[in-house]
């Protein structure tokens, strides 16, 4: 989306991507005039090389999803927007009506910024959880070990291969991990097959089609509902849980070509 918007605004845009990113995304970027540079390695290498190239050109501005405080605060605007929408819809969020938000997480910039904005808007009454693929749990690993960007999933023998290509990140943003570790309520992981199954279920029941990455948050409500120990640790009793609002942060799918979406749906078992 950043590549397409920048090209439409008239900037000369280069997008650095890992080779395992979806081919249709690369094609769409090129169709909009963006230059796409591919790397055989994962997202982290693409970002590192993009940063190095940008540093060599004084007229180049590098949009850094790992370390940009400006971009992080830009994402945080979502908190006030959600609050305004909830006020308009009459949805109450307070100590007796908690809000749970489930955010798909890749390197962490987007979900971290959104979660930060939500905490500013709702304080302790919002519980933000990050959702990651089982093969790419970089933020969970970084926060749990306290090593943040000093550890990658590959260091534990995890391959970082997932159908949720937007979340296929082996090393999390250290900036986001350190900024958000005490503000997050929890993490959970889910398999590619579960994301495909949820995609099929959503398409059938709600006639809404999302890309696999966007389904990562959809498993959150029943993960939370089933974990009574976690609820107790968060100071949540049965009455509060019964009055809670659950918000799934769906990250995209509107630009997925029809033939590609049919391939996703063919993988669903539900």
Q: Brief overview, please?
A:
The protein has 270 residues and is an alpha/beta fold.
Describe this structure in words.
- The chain has 270 residues and is of the alpha/beta class.
- The protein is 45% helix and 12% strand.
- It contains twelve helices and six strands.
- It has helices at residues 2-8, 23-31, 43-55, 69-89, 109-122, 138-145, 174-180, 192-206, 220-226, 228-233, 238-242, 258-266; strands at residues 14-18, 35-39, 99-104, 126-133, 186-190, 245-248.
- The strands form two sheets. Strands 5-4-3-6 form a four-stranded parallel beta sheet, sandwiched between helices. It has a two-stranded parallel sheet with strand order 1-2.
- Strand 3, helix 5 and strand 4 form a beta-alpha-beta unit.
- Helix 4 (69-89) packs across helix 5 (109-122) and helix 5 (109-122) packs parallel to helix 7 (174-180).
- The longest helix is centred in the N-terminal third of the chain and has 21 residues, at 69-89.
- The chain is globular and about 55 Å long.
- The two termini are 30 Å apart.
- The model has no long low-confidence stretch (mean pLDDT 94).
């Amino acid at each position: 989306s950043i590549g397409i918007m920048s090209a439409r605004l008239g900037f000369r845009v280069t997008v650095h991507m890992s080779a395992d990113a979806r081919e249709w995304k690369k094609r769409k970027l090129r169709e909009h005039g963006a230059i796409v540079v591919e790397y055989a390695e994962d997202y982290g290498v693409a970002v590192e090389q993009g940063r190095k190239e940008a540093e060599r050109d004084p007229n180049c501005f590098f949009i850094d999803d790992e370390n940009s405080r400006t971009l992080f605060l830009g994402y945080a605007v979502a908190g006030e927007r959600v609050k305004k929408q909830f006020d308009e819809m009459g949805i109450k969020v307070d100590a007796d009506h908690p809000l749970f938000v489930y955010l798909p997480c890749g390197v962490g910039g987007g979900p971290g910024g959104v979660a930060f904005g939500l905490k500013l808007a709702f304080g302790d009454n919002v519980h933000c959880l990050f959702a990651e693929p089982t093969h790419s749990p970089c933020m969970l690993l970084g926060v749990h070990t306290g090593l943040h960007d000093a550890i990658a999933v590959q260091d534990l023998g995890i391959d970082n291969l997932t159908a949720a290509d937007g979340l296929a990140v082996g090393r999390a943003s250290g900036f986001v991990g350190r900024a958000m570790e005490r503000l997050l309520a929890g993490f959970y992981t889910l398999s590619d097959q579960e994301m495909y199954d949820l995609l099929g279920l959503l398409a059938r029941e709600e006639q809404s089609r999302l890309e696999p990455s966007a389904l990562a948050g959809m498993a959150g409500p029943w993960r939370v509902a089933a974990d009574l120990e976690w609820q107790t640790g968060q100071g949540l009793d049965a009455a509060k849980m019964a009055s809670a609002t659950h918000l799934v942060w769906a990250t995209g799918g509107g630009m997925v070509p029809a033939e590609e979406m049919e391939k996703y749906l063919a993988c669903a078992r539900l």
